[in-house]
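Section 3.1: Structural characterization of target chains.
Under the original work plan, the team committed to producing a structural model for every single-chain target entering the pipeline before any wet-lab resources were allocated. The record below documents one such target. The sequence was received from the expression subgroup and is listed exactly as submitted; it comprises 421 residues.
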Amino acid sequence: MNLNIDLVHFLVVTIFSFLVGLEVKSYKNQNINPTDENYFFGDVRTYSFVGILGFILFKVDSNLHILYAVGFLSITLLYALLYQKNLQDNKKSILLYMVMLLVYSFGALIQTQALWMTALLYVSIVFILNINQGVEKFTKNININEFQTLSKMILLSAVILPLLPDTKIIPYIPLSPFKIWLAVVVISGISYNGYLLQKYFFPSKGYYLTGIFGGSYSSTATTVVLARKAKQLGGYSVIDAAIISATSVMYLRLIIVALIFNIDIGKNLIFPFVLLSLIGFIISFFYLQHQQKTQEHVAIVDKNPLELKTALLFAFLFVIMIIVTHFVTKHYGTSGLEVLSFMVGFTDIDPFILSVLTGKLPIASTQIIAVIMIAAGSNNLLKAIYALWFGGIKNTYKSAVWIFMLGIVTILWGLYFEHTI
C-alpha cells in the first residue's frame, strides 16, 4: 500500500516537531532554574503546533508563500514581546527563537527538499541542544587565535589553492604554484591534526602520549620540550620512553607523506620505516615499564603548527630545497645528494624530503629512497644532541643513545639500500 506523500510529510513534520519540543523541555530542566519558567517560549505542544503550522501555511499557498511569510513574522513578533521582558531580567539568549524558527521551517523544507535534509536538520538540533556542557568545557581550553589561523589556512587551501595555475611558470622550478602550495597544505594538515589530538583530545595524559602525539607534528620540538622537562625533574624512565616514541612516530609520519606525494616511493619505505618505528616503540615500552611515578605532566608549548607565517616559511624553504636539490644532482650526482641529505637532517627535513619526492629528479627511485632515509637518520642524530643539550647528559643519555643508534642504522640502511637494490 502506497501512502499519500503529503500524509507522509505531515507525519514526519509532526513527529520531528514533537521530538524537538521534548528535547527543549529536557534542555530546560537541565540548564534553567525553575524560577525562570517563563524564560522559554512554549513547550512540547507549542513546538508541535508550530511545525504543523509551517507545513500547512506553506502547502496552502504554494505559489507566493505569503501566508508562510506572515507566519514567520508572527512568531518573530511574539518572541520579540517575550524578549523585551527577558531583557529587563538581564536574559539575552535567543536560543529558543532560533530553534522555533528551525522547527517552523520543517514544513517548507520537507516539501521542497529530499527527506534526508529534514532529518539532518532534526538531528542537528538535537545534537547541538545536548552538547551545551561539553562545548563550554571544550571552549575553556581553546586558544581563540587557533581559529583565526585555521580560517586563514582554509582560505588559502579551499579558495586560493584552486585558483593557482597548475603549470610550470617559475624558471628553474620544476613544479607549478599549485603543486608547491598543495605540499604546504598537506604537511600543515598532518602537523595540525597531530597537534589537535595532543592538546584537545589527550591533554595532560602523561609523558608517553605527549611523545606520541607530539612526534606526529614535530619530533624535534617534542624532544626539546621533553628533554627540558627531564632536566627540571631529573632522570625519569617514562621521559626517555616518550622521547624515543616521538622519533618512532616520525618514521610513520614520513611514510604517510611519501605515500601522498609518491606512492611508489612510499610503498618501498613502509618496510624499513615500520621496522625502525617498531624497534623504537619496543625500546620505549621497555623504559615505560620502569617508569617512576610523578604527578607532573609535560606542558607542550601552546604553539599552533598551522600558523600562516610557518606555512609561508615552509613554502619558501620548499622552493629553495627544490632548486638546491636539482643543482646538487646536476653537478655532483647522487653522492652530492647524499651529502646534502645528511646536512639537511640537522635542520627541518620536510622541505627537503618533499623536494625529493616531487622534484622529478633524474635519479633512480632507489636513490630517492636512500636520501630520504639518510635525511631521517641525520635528523635523529640532531635530536640525540638536543636531548643531551637541553636535558643534561645524566638525565637523558639513555634516550639520546637509542635515538643516535636509530639514526646510524637508518643512514646505513639507506646507503645499503641504494647500492644493493
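Residues 142-420 form one domain.
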